Amino acid sequence: MGKIIEAKIGDAAKILSIQKLAYRSEAELYGDFNIEPLKQTVSDVEKAFEDYLILKYIEDGEIVGSVRAYQEDSTCYIGKLMVHPDCQNKGIGKALMNEIERQFNVERFELFTGSKSEKNINFYEKLGYAGYKTKKLDREETIFIFMEKLAKLLLKVK
Question: How far apart are CA 150 and CA 135, in angstroms?
């Protein structure tokens, strides 16, 4: 059983190496190895620490997964959910998503994934996300599906 803790800037190189392994299947699906997650550098990941809360999943002393998010107004934007290919389908991605959602007190969560990435779309739907638009980003040719989930607002008893 692993644990989830906040990543530190010194984890950037390890997170990037997992990112490149985890996003390889996306690149293969789209026949495009020029996607942004594969082009990023260690300094790009280090820079993300300025704007994002980055969590890491540690198993047997090794980072095997990560997710990042930031809040703008009443929305939490989640990105770069990744799990090492050898550790996928073991609940790590779900645990990371549940933990990142717990870190933000917001009205809604938003993320995006490739519109052909059926496995990812099904995964997010099981977590309560629903697609609401598709859009191509300037940075690459992939058509993305944007998904949202309304937060379960806790009722305060007076």
Answer: 20
pLDDT digits (tens, 9 = 90+) for 118-130: 999 999 999 999 9
Chain centroid to CA 31: how far? Answer: 21
Phi, psi values for residue 156, rounded to 5°:
-90, 125
Q: Please list, residue by residue across 22-42, b when 16 or more beta carbons sit within 10 angstroms of its beta carbon and e when fewer do.
A: bbeebbebbeeeebebeebee
How many Cα atoms within 13 Å fall on the side-chain side of residue 73? 3
Pairing between strand 130-136 and 143-150? antiparallel
CA dist., res. 134 & res. 73, Å (int): 22
Facing residues of 62 across strands? 59
- pTM for the full predicted model: 0.93
Specify the pairing of strand 53-59 against strand 143-150: unpaired
Helix (H, G, I), strand (E, B) or coil at 64: strand
